[in-house]
Design goal:
Distance between the termini: 81 Å
Structural class: alpha/beta
Strand order of the largest sheet: 1-6-5-2-3-4
Largest sheet: 6 strands, mixed
Number of strands: 13
Order of helices and strands: HEHEHEHEHHHHHEHEHHHHHEEHHEEEEE
Strand content: 5-15%
């Protein structure tokens, strides 16, 4: 009896420690005591997280939830990663202010094939730790009867309770009926994989709660909803997204990752430490206090944050190397150790055999258009072998370009060959 009591006490202490670790940093847990009850069952939980392959690269914003999923793995639970190859056809309306055009099957498939490799930078992929599913497995075979059954228990008024739908409706912006289906399809994912817990960002709360309702209707024990804060991008305003060019990709090269992180506003340094690094809450709190009271320089805290994030994805020491490269280019104004070579694009040469600078910058892939290239030139953001070129009408002979380094902005370099 005494031995049994001691064993029970040890198990209770482990559950308490796991609960503290697994709920750390969470924005919402619904129901509040639900995870504790699930852990008390004493079995490995099925912990679901879904990602739609709408872009080819995962970024630090995605990694916030993936790292929480890794914590569940480390505590002995099964991560169920849903690749939303079917729901990507609709497009998640969460947080969107306008209707998004449909994606092609080829685009979705190309993106989906890269996701597992990228997620493997965060998650354990060994047997028994990760189950990967595509939701086309169960959503594609659904017939009209199945769709009608899903929609029967949900009203338009319930859908319009969502902030994004409510705002768009009030602003007379279109909302398609297909978008209304998205939360139901994501909820059906939870039914299909019999999820115990579902993780997501705070913008996913409505969708995750819908999963609970559909599981109840299917006679399942409803999942626990755990949401994590959204990570703002390097612009400090909008959530991280490749669409806004404010992202830091988890597969970015170390020097690129470090450079992007150095653009993070001072007010977000501690949040990036808290959500994007392995340093933990205590260090993030110290940074917050140090910057606030002036005992810590923000730039030093930012450098530490950037080093830690680079180390997390590229190995110990990669952050220091990326920092040295950053200083080499930005403080010492030297060229990077490696500069990509680019054959002079034929489209950049006009009928007179001369090269118009804005067209060169655009055709070299250093600006999205001639107009943006002109703007960069006028603002002094374009250099040739270190010399600023500020005349957007400038034309050069090909011989004047060969072997020289064309630089746009602080981090983009090509050597014309």
């Amino acid at each position: 009896m005494v031995a049994g009591s001691g064993t029970d006490s040890i198990r209770a202490m482990k559950r308490a420690a796991d609960l503290d670790r697994l709920t750390a940093g969470a924005e919402l847990i619904e129901p509040a005591d639900g995870l504790e009850s699930k852990l008390a069952k004493g079995r490995a939980l099925r912990v679901k997280h879904g990602i739609d392959p709408t872009r080819p690269d995962l970024h630090l914003g995605h990694a916030v939830t993936l790292r929480k999923l890794r914590q569940f793995q480390d505590a002995g639970h099964l991560a169920v990663l849903i690749i939303g190859d079917y729901t990507a056809r609709i497009g998640d309306p969460s947080g969107r202010s306008e209707l998004r055009g449909p994606m092609s099957t080829d685009e979705i498939e190309a993106n989906a094939t890269t996701y597992l490799e990228q997620a493997g930078k965060v998650l354990r992929t060994d047997d028994g730790a990760l189950e990967v599913r595509r939701n086309s497995e169960w959503l594609a075979p659904m017939g009209m009867d199945d769709v009608l059954r899903l929609t029967a228990g949900v009203t338009v008024a319930q859908m319009l309770e969502r902030d994004d739908f409510h705002k768009r409706y009030a602003d007379h912006k279109p909302i398609s009926l297909v978008e209304f289906l998205y939360p139901l399809l994501q909820g059906q994912d939870s039914v299909a994989v019999i999820a115990d817990v579902e993780l997501g960002g705070t913008d996913q709360t409505f969708n995750l709660l819908m999963g609970r309702e559909l599981q109840k209707a299917a006679g399942q024990d409803p999942q626990i909803v755990l949401t994590m804060p959204l990570l703002e991008g390097t612009d400090g305003v909008r959530k991280m997204s490749k669409s806004y060019d404010n992202y830091v990709g988890i597969t970015d090269e170390p020097k690129e990752m470090f450079g992007r992180l150095m653009r993070v506003p001072d007010g977000l340094i501690a949040k990036y430490v808290r959500l994007g690094s392995a340093l933990g809450r205590d260090v993030a709190d110290q940074i917050d206090r140090g910057i606030a009271d002036g005992s810590l320089k923000a730039v030093e805290a930012k450098r530490r944050m950037a080093r830690e994030v680079v180390d997390l994805y590229h190995g110990m020491g990669a952050g220091r190397q990326a920092e040295a490269e950053f200083d080499r280019v930005h403080k010492e104004h030297q060229l990077p150790d490696e500069v990509e070579e680019l054959a002079l694009p034929p489209l950049a040469i006009n009928e007179q055999g001369r090269v118009w600078l804005p067209r060169l910058v655009a055709t070299a892939g250093l600006a999205p258009s001639n107009a943006e290239a002109r703007r960069q030139i006028e603002q002094g953001g374009v250099r040739l072998d270190g010399e600023a070129l500020t005349d957007p009408a400038l034309e050069l002979a090909p011989e004047e370009l060969r072997g020289k380094v064309l630089q746009v902005g602080r981090r983009r370099f090509v050597r014309i060959v």
